[in-house]
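Input record (Table S2, row 431):
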Amino acid sequence: MAEINKAPRGTNDLLPEDSYKWQFVEQKLIETAGLYGFREIRTPVFEHTEVFTKNVGDTTDVVQKEMYTFTDKGDRSITLRPEFTAGVIRSVVEHSLTAAALPVKVCYCGGCYRYEKPQAGRLREFHQFGVECIGAASPAADAEVIALGSQLLRDIGVKKISLEINSIGCPTCRAEYHKALKAYFEEKKDRLCGTCNERLERNPMRILDCKSPVCSEIAKDAPVVIDFLCEECADHFSKVKAHLDGMGISYKVNPRIVRGLDYYTRTVFEFVSGDIGAQATVCGGGRYDGLLEQMGGQAQPALGFAMGIERLLMVLESQQAELPEPRPCDIYIAPMGDAATLKAGVLCAALRDEGFEALTDIVGRGLKAQMRYANKIGARFTLVLGDNELESGKARLKCMENGEEQEIALDAIADAIYEATFTKMAEEFGM
Ligand code: ATP
Ligand code: MG
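Output record (magnesium ion complex):
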């Protein structure tokens, strides 16, 4: 019974004391992506199950083990999105967004759902920010998307993170690679897990990101796809690297990156942090040139990435990055008596119209308790309103930071706060 008073395993409540961090991060991400022309898209939290089984791939861990799938009352199979790309591309195709100017650049932010074993940096409800760029085949597009990932992390306040890139080729070069992989794993078949034995026939590359310790040990010495790239794919990859070099973005080629989703082609990349333990990948992405056509749209080259917000915040915390403080309450008006309470409500309404956070007593506290409350919430200014003040139309505005008081007219509270704010700013900037 106690269970129902707790959030489900692998989920987190975001409490008011922390939500400002999320607001800052989400706003900053969307704003910076905007500098590259990305505009926000919002798609449903759930999709028809086939959107994921067909496109993420039915031999991936995500589809085989991690999806929240249920039958709705209309007997449809529905799945909570385990990732955004498949749903976003479904939407892009459904609304023919590619019929307008190309490339289509969209970004998104929201919750994802995967039935995983919860641990640090691995949740069942987690949040992603990501971008998708559709209709751009050139290596410059890969470099631009990677550059955006890099700038986002920097702008948010990440001080240190490494970029690893790889190319996993196109279906042509991958056919040769699959043969080599099959030959390699065939000999060790008996030691592979059940799921990987099945993958050996259908999609041997998926064995490379199996989480079972035995399979990953065996996979360590498997052939790498980068040795099998066709001429076009090799050329594309070297141009991507040349662009990154030109932009001064440092990276490491890691031939072991394959990514956990089936739709990737050519460039794949990850931003990996050494500061947050085993779940080290903060952002992962790559090219998926076949996905639009596979989803019934017009063939379009495309690429994108997704960033885990929880892991990003873990990095910021471990690197002690400074996030902007939440805005404090501007003024607390403490009324004494019924007439003053009425007037305080009117004054607060006017101050809020001016854009100030203005609070007053709605609990029925005495003056002392009200002042304790104002202190607790960190109000910048307080103002006591009693019969005398109502009569004279004047009151004492107290700055809580330095204790200074000034007498002001009740209809000039906003002006006084503005002025005090500017004076303080001027002092801080030495003007
Ligand atoms: P991992 O190898 O850690 O399982 P993944 O390859 O499954 O990651 P993607 O599908 O590429 O992850 O998702 C992109 C990003 O979303 C990851 O790099 C990570 O930051 C975040 N992410 C993925 N799964 C989770 C999860 N269960 N909990 C928290 N964040 C996650
Ligand atoms: Mg995973």
